[in-house]
């Protein structure tokens, strides 16, 4: 039996986590509050994020933070919606493949059962029909996989853009000059927990982009 590519059975969470990772330095920026560097201490203290957050740590005068994109994906409303959107899309395409596969399997079983009673010419004709159908099945599977890849790109790029905007906002509020990505595949092998600004990013993310409209 010809099987479709295994993209259809892939893990949505794993795929999102890989693509959402903003390669390298998420927010290499200077804070805009003052032209010479980060905002003054008095200005930061008045900001609700920086005032309550110990994560605005400094190394050799450079204020840095670390973000866990996997955690942002798992714990934000937007990340959950992105995963749900991809899951539903993949399930729909998977059901189409399964229908095609069942029909192809039925043809194969019929061909095996009737092989002994068919004439040589009739058997060759049925085998040719099955071969053409198998080719069509594989082409359909490839087409559906391309659709899934396009959908992944659309959803994930949209989510990544949102992550970058929120991280930039939180970083500027906290007076950070650089935010690095942590997790497998990221540039940060180790970091002190005091540098992790993921909770602040998640909180701000959900505040800016709530999961459901508020009831009036």
Kindly describe this structure.
Helix 6 packs across helix 7 (198-208). The protein has helices at 12-20, 41-45, 48-51, 69-75, 77-114, 120-174, 198-208, and strands at 57-59, 62-67, 178-181. The chain is rod-shaped, with a radius of gyration of 26 Å. The protein contains 7 helices and 3 strands; from the N terminus they run αααββαααβα. A 3-stranded mixed beta sheet has the order 1-2-3, with no helix packed on it. The chain starts with 11 loop residues before the first helix and ends in an 8-residue tail after the last helix. The protein is mostly helical and 216 residues long. The protein has one domain.
Order of secondary-structure elements: HHHEEHHHEH
Mean pLDDT: 76
Fraction of residues in H or I helices:
55-70%
Number of helices: 7
> Runs with pLDDT <50, length 5+?
1-56
Shape: rod-shaped
Q: Rg, please? A: 26 Å
Number of domains: 1
Instruction: Specify the biggest β-sheet.
Output: 3 strands, mixed
Got a strand count? 3
Give the percentage of residues in beta strands: 5-15%
Strand numbers in spatial order across the main sheet: 1-2-3
Distance from N terminus to C terminus (CA atoms, Å) equals: 55 Å
Structural class: mainly alpha
